[in-house]
Amino acid sequence: MDDQHPYLIDDCLIHIFTFLNDQALISASCVCKDWHRAAETPWLWRRMCLQRWTFCNLSVLGSEHVQQSWKKYLLRRCHLEMKMKKGRSGGDYTCKSLRGHAGRVIGLVYLQGNSAQLPDIWNSSAIVCSASADGTVRAWNIQNGEQLWCSPVQSPLTGIIRDEELGVVITADSTGLIKTWQGQTGQEVASCSTGSSHCTLLQHSINNSWFLSVGTCLGSVYTLAGSALTRKSSVVVCDTFTVNILLVSPDKKWIVAGTKDNHDCCPKVMYTESLTFPSEDEEPLCHIVPVAGCQAAVFIPTQPARLAIIHYNDQQKNKTLTVLDISIKRTKYKSEILVQQVASFPLTVNSRTSHVLLEAKDSNTLVVAADQELWVYSLKGALLASFKDHIMPISSICVDSFRVVTASQDLSLRVLTWKNDRDRGLTLESRFHLLGGSHTMSRGFTHVACDYSSIVASVEGKDGKDVLKAYSFIS
Fold first, then answer.
1. Is 27 helix (H, G, I), strand (E, B) or coil?
2. Model-level pTM?
3. What is the pLDDT of residues 371-389, one digit of tens each?
C-alpha cells in the first residue's frame, strides 16, 4: 500500500467494491486490513440497501456504530427474506393458534404491524383484531399467541376495518350499528345506527379531517365525520342492491361505490369533497362509471386516481378487465367528472365464477384470483404468470411489495414472492404452502392478512367456532 496516498488507494478500492454483491464484499473484507477498511465504508452498504429496497427504515438502525449499522441492516433483512422465501417449518417461522371466538370470523385487520414499505427488522411485534358472528371484536398479540382484549357481546358483526394512524377499529353489525373501538384497550369510542343489515366500511381522511363512508344494503352511501360519527351526506348508488364495492383513490379525491349483485348496475364515482363538505343547494358531485356487472375493483396504488375493474362484457358471457383514469374538469360555472378508458382486455376467468378477487402491486401489475387459479397481468393485458397451486377455490388474497399470499378452502396458504425476470420483467415465483390443520376439524381458510414479517388467516371450524392461525417469521 502506498503510505503517501492512502486515501487515493481507498477511493479506488471503494469504487471497485461497488461492483460486488454483499457476499463478495464480505469476502473481500477478509483479504487484508486495507481491504477490510474500504469494505466497511458505510456508503457502500447504504448504497446496496437502497438499490435493493428503495426505502429503508432508518429509525431501526438505533444506536449501532455507524460503520456497521447499514451492513447489519442489509445482512439481517436478507436473512429474514431468505426465511420468508423458504418457509421451513420449525426453523423459519413459528405458528400460533388463536382461539376464543364462538362463531364465524367475518374479517381481520392488523391494528399494529410491520410495514412492508418500511419494515422494522429488529422489532416485529404485531397486533391483529378479528370480528366474528359471535358479536365480539378481539385483539391478539400474534407473536405470543395471547388475547389482549375482547369487546362486549353485541349483534353478529358483519364488517371490520381499522385506522392504524389513530389506532382505532371500526365495526358494523347485522342491525346496522357502527362502532369505533380504541385499539389498545378495546374501549368503545362512538356509535351510529344506519338501520342496514349489511354495511361496507371505508375510512379516509381529507386535510387532517377524519371520515367514514358506509355502503348499505339499500344501495346508499352515507358519509360520517369525526369521532362522533356525525352524518354529513347520503348518495343513492344502486337502488335496493347492497353496496359491496367501496374504494377511495390514493389521492383521496374520489370514492367509487357499486354492487356485485346486479349485472345491469354501473358503479358510481363521487368527488369526496362534495360528500365530506356538502353544499346546501347542490347535490354531491357524482358520475356513472361506464361498465356494468362489476365483480371486483381496485385503485392502482402508485397513481392518483387510476381504477381497475373486472366486469361482464356487453354479452355478459365473459369477464373483462378495464382500466380507467378519473379526473375533474372545472369551468367558470360548473365542475364535471371525467372517466377515461386507459386499457381493456378479456380475462381467462370462467364466466360462471362469481367470486373474483383483484389486487394491484404497482403502476403496471394486477393480480387476479378465481376458483383455484391465480393470474398476474400487466396493465395492458399481457399475462405475466399463472398458477394453480390449490385443489379447492381461493377464498382470499393478500398482496404487498414482497409477496402474494393466497388462502384456500383446501386448508392451505400459498406464498409467492415477487422477482424481476430479465425477459419478462416483474413476475411471481411460487414458494411454499402453510397448512392450517386437519380437515376433520376444519373446512378451510376464509380470510388472510399479512404484514412484512407475519401472516394471519382465519380457519372455518366445523363446530362453528373459527380459529386464527398466526405465522411469524424469525430473523
1. helix
2. 0.88
3. 999 999 999 999 999 999 9
